[in-house]
Amino acid sequence: MELYRAAVEAVEALPVDVSAYQELGEAALLEVNLLAATASKGLSGSKALIAGEIAHRSTPALGLQGLAQRAGHRTPAQFMVATNGVTGREAVIAVRVGTLAREAATAGQVDRATREVAVPSQPWLAPVAAALAARELSVEGAEAIRAGLGEPTTAVTADALRAAASRLCRDGASLPPDHLFRAAREARDELDVDGVKLREAERRAKRSLTFTTLPDGMSRLVWVMDPETAVTVKDVFDRLTSPKRGGVRFVADAEKTKAARILEDTRTVAQLASDGFEQLLRAGADSDSRRLLGSGAPVVRVTATRTAFASGHGLGRLDGQSDPVSISTVQRLTCTGATEEVTFDRAGRALDVGREQRTFTRRQREALAVRDGGCMMPDCQRPPSWCEAHHIRFWGRDHGPTNTADGILLCKHHHLLAHNNGWEIKRDQTDAYWLIPPPDRDSRQIPIPLRSKSPALRDLAREAAAG
After folding, report:
1. pLDDT less than 50: residues of the chain
2. Hey, how many other C-beta atoms are within 10 angstroms of the C-beta on 411?
3. H/E run at residue 106
4. Which domain covers residue 166, as residue numbers?
């Protein structure tokens, strides 16, 4: 109790005057930001533990004698909303994670109220509870792993989920919660390959398009898309708007001209997209629409390993979508599109062309897309279609070769950062890539690992490991 009173006093003593932060130097401001985040993470964990205990003392078995019920609230989450001033979602997460932590800590003990031996309801999440207790994982991170991994089924055992949870806590604890959720979802998909087709069908069944006329004479179109539809529509959307949204820079004169035209257009991004899709529908209704955007039909990149494609068992990947598709979907898409094989060796290296040309070839960019899975900068989620191929040994300054080993995918923002702000990227003897910050950002210039975001490459590595 005294510790919490002291914590409240300490928080109340913190400056709330804007000028106090304006006076800080850059290094001090960054340090204060990190300290505040650490304190918030620790306090959030303690609040979850409190929520878990309140939930335990408000179980349905206690009826109206439960703690939350006696206070006039139907559930512990509603009690937290009313007393803590948090949103319903925040309260539900706190109760879930707090209950998880409490169950793990009291496993095997005799409950005082029920006189029963406590048994965790989600034993596969024990590593998550341990990481939370050690302050290695945030409450939001714990919820991300729980939601992403799901529950055991006949195809996925509790032991397999426990191993995946342990791996995620070890390797992904520093990831933002939304990234950690995606990592957990990918781990679940890799464990439950056969379930991918079912989940794909479920998402497909949820697709819808509704048209509503508004009272002011305007109309609204709401289109909920499954991943396969989304990648097709997004390709068209990107062609219409990407230069204006900071997309890739173009080399070909025709593409440069089109990009300049879009950048100079006074319409907003949303207006450009609206007008472009209207014209696309008009053209599709009464003429050949293939040349509307100057590049033919939308381009959808789908990848799968050769083994999975040939056997019909495994995972496929759609560029720009986090969820996998079934191999049957990959095989269907290849019936109406071109296929191209990109060969990797066991170290994950792809084809090279040396230094004969400055720009990366189309096949090299395809190889980089499969290998990197998008912008390689930490926390950046730009897909390959939004990235540029960067020479980690600069073409002019370092006389670097144009090969995939010395190339890496970066979105435009991070590509400019590498060239203009002193950030360097190095490749070691194991073909691992490292980001070296400039001295004004980190005087010790401690290397930051750059990891591939390509689920397709992980599929390939998993097959190789399995022989």
Report:
1. 288-295, 352-356
2. 24
3. helix 88-106
4. 22-194
